[in-house]
C-alpha cells in the first residue's frame, strides 16, 4: 500500500532548506573540513560555523553553490552593539555569505527602542560592507513571551533583516511549531523564517516547513539525506522491477509504479545503510 507524500519538498530537495551546522566549542579543523565535504555532496544551502572557521569554509567551498553562514554575538546576544558590528564585519571580510545574529533579549525586555537601534546599526554596517549579505536574527524564543516574539520579529523586519530564527540550539528549548507559525504570521510571506534547535529528523523538519519555515538549521542534515540514499540503493538492488518507481519513506514519495517501504525504525535511526531495511512491492 502506497503512502502519499505530505505537503513539503520531495526527494532530497530538503537539502536546499538546510544550514548544515557545527557550532560546538570543541570542533576541530578536521570536523569543519568534513562538514564542508558533506555539504558539497548533499547540496545543502550552507554550512553554519563559528566565526573562526569562516575563512577555512570559504576556501573549502570555493566554486560551489554552498554558502558560508556564521553566528554573531553567539550564543547569548549580550555583547555590545559595537562588538557585534565588528564581529559581523570581520566575518564578512573572511567570506561569510550569511550572518545569524543573536538578539539581546535583556535589551528587548528593557527598552524596545534601544533594541531597534542596535538591530538597525548592525544591518546598516553589514549592508555597507556587502550589499547582498543575508542577515538572520536569532530570537531564542524559549526565553521570550509570545508578545515578545511578535515585538522582536517586527523589530527585525523594520530594521531590514532577511530572516528571523527561533533558537541558538544552546538555550533551554529549541524550535516549536507554535513559535514558527507565530513568527511567520508576524513577518508575512516575503521575509524568511529559520527553524533551529532540536530538529533531528526529516519528519520534524517537514513539520517546521509546513508551519512556515523556509530554512532549517540542524546538525543532523546528513542523517536526513541518508534516507534518500537508502531508498535509492533499494531501487538499484531490484533491476527486475520497472525503472519507473514510487519511493515512499515516511512522508516522502518520488515517482511511479512500485513502492519501497522502509522497515519500522525510529526517525533518525540510520544504522542500516544497505537495502536490507526495505522491501519492494509491485503496485
Structural notes for this entry:
By secondary structure, this protein is an alpha/beta fold. The chain folds into two domains: 11-219, Aldolase class I (TIM Barrel, Alpha-Beta Barrel); 226-282, no CATH class. Helix content is 39%, strand content 19%. It is built from nine helices and twelve strands. It has helices at residues 29-42, 54-60, 81-94, 105-110, 112-129, 146-159, 177-187, 202-211, 221-236; strands at 18-22, 46-49, 67-72, 98-102, 134-138, 163-165, 192-196, 215-218, 246-249, 252-255, 258-262, 278-282. Strands 1-2-3-4-5-6-7-8 form an eight-stranded parallel barrel, surrounded by six helices. The radius of gyration is 20 Å and the shape is globular. Mean pLDDT is 83; it is low at 1-6 and 238-283.
Indicate the mean pLDDT.
83
Total of helices: 9
- Tell me the Rg in angstroms: 20 Å
Low-pLDDT segments: 1-6, 238-283
Q: Number of domains in the coordinates?
A: 2
- Top CATH class of the largest domain: Alpha Beta
Instruction: Provide the structure class.
Output: alpha/beta
Question: In what range is the share of β-strand residues?
Answer: 15-25%
Helix content: 25-40%
Count the beta strands: 12
Q: What is the CATH architecture assignment of the largest domain?
A: Alpha-Beta Barrel
- The main sheet orders its strands as 1-2-3-4-5-6-7-8
| Helix and strand run | EHEHEHEHHEHEHEHEHEEEE
